[in-house]
Fold:
Amino acid sequence: MGIVNLTPDSFSDGGRHGDEAAALRHAETLLREGADMLDLGAESSRPGAARVGEVDEWARLAPVLRGVLKLGVPVSVDTCKTGVMQRALDLGADAINDITALRAPGAESLLASYPDAGVILMHMRGEPASMQQLTDYEDVGAEVLDFLEERATKIHALGVASHRILLDPGFGFAKTAAQNLALQATLAMHSPRHPWLAGWSRKSTLGWISGAPVTERLPASLAAALAAVRAGARLLRVHDVSATVQVLSVWRAMENARP
Ligand code: HH2
Structure:
């Protein structure tokens, strides 16, 4: 999954694809590099990020979403606002990627009413502005897995078919670096009942481990991508598609080779 951020303030690429033409060019580049799908976001969720109103979020999203939907690949929209979800689905978005796991009023029933839409349910506590103060867990792996299974069960019961649901442990969202690592180790041992997505790309845990600043975390992101696949991740949300595809293809060829 290639990331297309339409924000001035994303943690690693804020303002880089600000205008519509630049964002479309970026989306096309990610597809040429081998992305299977695109994730469009117009509100940053980095720790401490300011909230964006629904009107402004949609104004950033709509023109680029219209263009990207013509590229013929699945497109998810990264939003936690029910109104933005509805407009995106009406325009033809294939999935909603929600860092709040459809907890906004009306979001669950909205998704149930679009029978073909996929949904990514992510674990987070609180809001991006305050989430890094909410990292007190007894057992982060068990708590996140329970949360995701509960959300998936509820949303399935409301009418979202099981095969439409993807889970995401939410690396970096209300978790310390050590908790992110423990969480992935738990997922490696206990796979959830739905496929899961890993979003490690350029995140601060990788800087904590390697000492690399955000602009120099490509090697760290690639190592994390491989570790996530090995732990069972089925989808990788990444900024650097070309390098990720290359690393995965070599790793897979070697993993599958037989004497
Ligand atoms: N991470 C970010 C944003 N959305 N969605 C899911 N499902 N999983 C993630 O790990 C995830 C996400 C943060 O990355 P980015 O979009 O590059 O930054 P920002 O939120 O600052 O725009």
User: Anything to note?
Assistant: The first strand starts at residue 2 and ends at 5.
